[in-house]
Amino acid sequence: MTRKRKRSPQPRSECPVCGAVRTNHNMRRHVESHRDARERLNVPLELQAQMVRMHRAGKSYAAIGAELFYGASTVRRVMVANGIPGRKPGGRRPYLPADEALRRTELYGRGYSILEVARICGVSYAAIRNTLLTNDVRIRPAGANLRWARSRRSERREAA
Length: 160
Hints:
Number of helices: 9
Shape: elongated
């Protein structure tokens, strides 16, 4: 039976900043983590300030990076290190006036299909459906168009 050889303990040292005890090969990285996040980036502080100003002016990470020869992910890390919150993807949703939402729901209530309302309003099917769902309008089940069926019935009555 072979015996396992005991490993010699690795030398340890104490962090001068917080007093945590780490192995020597991990200590450099640990001490580095105490530095300011802005200093840890490989971007000069003046350039970081310029990036923040450009971002506040409305430029995207990609546009800032292209102008200053950095990647968008580097620009994002600079923003995080400087405490700038990120914007939501896709920007702001366009504002829909209340009268336009009312018009869409009224057309749908008259019996027009979502697709017909979309064509009349000049928007997509999804835009009309989202408007209806946002305004708590019950979506009709798929099937025969009731308005078309009523008009066909009235035509038959007139012909008879």
